[in-house]
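thread: overnight batch results

M.L. [08:02]
morning all. the overnight job finished for the chain we discussed friday. pasting input first so we're all looking at the same thing
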Amino acid sequence: MEVIEAIKSYENVVAFGRVSNSLEIIRKDIIKINKVVYIDKLIKEYEHILILASGDPCFYGIVQYLNRQNIVIEKIMPGLSSFQYMMAKLGKSWQGANLLSLHGREENLDTIKEHKFSIILTDKDNSPSSISKRLYKMGIEGIIYAGFNLSYEEERIIKVNIGEALEDISPLSVVVVENAMD
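M.L. [08:03]
and the structure it wrote out:
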């Protein structure tokens, strides 16, 4: 409720495309952006703005960017993170899971060998199918779950063995690796 009230009451509301589209039923004049760098301009233009981003803003999210830009954050109201949602859909505990983000960055996947579960945020270049292939080449066995468009009408969750063919339905996905450790 707090977030909905903020959306209704703030004079200037900024959101990324997918979020702004889903909130049009609450408010039609949301300023749509598609890149985080546009926030700098808007912050200079407007004294008080509400920035809406999907998921957890503190986990590889907008908070890190704003802090690097020395932008003062008055309040953070996190949403449900995509990995929390995915693990709930799978009915699996993510306590102790290896958390990685390949969304706009490269990371070494070697840590997956050491964990029963790894949860990976992806992008168009680091897709579930490419991750599955990389893990297979590394000799990792187990199951890969790929969740696409989570919490939206077109949500799909696919389960395959690591290395098997996997359709990349959308660049918006979360991968869960269930490592068949010895």
